[in-house]
Amino acid sequence: MTDIPIPDSVEHVLLDEATIRARIEVLAEKISRDYAGIRNEDFILVGVLKGSFIFLADLARRLTVPHRVDFIALSSYTDATDVPGAVRLIMDTRASIPGRHVLIVEDILDTGYTLSYLQRVFSARGPASLRTCVLLSKPERRKVEVPVDYLGFEIPDVWVVGYGLDFNDRFRTLPYIAALKRSAYEK
Length: 187
Ligand code: IMP
Ligand code: MG
Prior knowledge:
Layout (H helix, E strand, L loop, with lengths): L9 E6 L1 H18 L8 E7 L3 H8 L7 E9 L10 E5 L9 E9 L3 H11 L5 E9 L12 E5 L5 E2 L15 E4 L1 H4 L2
Parallel strand pairs: 2-3, 2-5, 5-6, 6-7
Antiparallel strand pairs: 1-9, 3-4, 8-9
Helix pairs in contact: 1-2
Inosinic acid binds next to strand 5, helix 3 and strand 8.
């Protein structure tokens, strides 16, 4: 276990390193089984920056099937738009998508707007297949239903940080996933 002091704004550790590691092993085995026999140039993991970078790194290194790694970055519209949960792509993949097997790797599913947007964008590009792998899900918060093919953990409706996830770009590199104190994110 890494000996890193727990920040003051952390309420409690929700998922420790060993728990995350064990779950990722299971996910990686499933994915490796499902994509068995695939050729390297055909299988692309698409990580959603920044939140998924640690999850993707750990997951990818456990896969026993050949694959490529790519990233996209999104931005949520902060100005008052008429569309709830509107997101836009601010960095696209380098790899071309048509004919490839695409696995979107996302840190957390909250309202579902982000992942459903990504599914629309990527399926419109004619991939050979399109699946999603999400580390965390807060089912209570869902506004739109999104199919998830590989899910790490369901968690309650609390703001979590660590293992790639942030609050105002802080706490991303904590080795565990922790719930923030409500006083730290609610005014
Ligand atoms: P959705 O579009 O509401 O599903 O939001 C997904 C995005 O919101 C995630 O990719 C995260 O960037 C962010 N997010 C939602 N909940 C949390 C959380 O508890 N901690 C950190 N980021 C979160
Ligand atoms: Mg995210």
